[in-house]
User: Fold this.
Amino acid sequence: MSGYGTLAVARVVVGVSGSLGSVTALRRATALARRLGAELWPVLAWEPPGGDSAARRSPAAGLPVEEWQRLAKQRLASVLEEIFDAEGPGVPMHPLVVRGAPGRALVATADRENDVLVVGAGRRGLRRAFSGRVSRHCLAHAVCPVLAVPPSPLQSELLSVHRRNTWHLRIDTRDL
Assistant:
């Protein structure tokens, strides 16, 4: 007998940046890990501002990199604490901070055929052509199944309100 029913998923790897889309992906990945009895691997990928070449040219190259690494760890811990509180996710969790481009870092982490990689699918709307680079990279290069989680409906509503505020348009408060 073959198929997904017999596939033993060891890890559910999920990209976490703190954005609303990544939080939606984290929640979906947590539910999937619980259902499958798998470990949850939240991954925050980071790069030095200006990229690695700019960091190497800096006079004090080692110091800023250590600080950026510390800040990335702090950000991941903060997101996980906010989402899970003291209860935790209900499955074994292995948070990981990886230096590198998000797409490459996630594909490198989810390197087993029986992993599942969960990523946010990016934004919808005007920026669609420029969003979703990470999810597209993961879908093209991963050796395991990839679940691309669409943005939450709340994200679309928040973006709509933000656009209205930016353009100084009235908001219809009758539906609030």
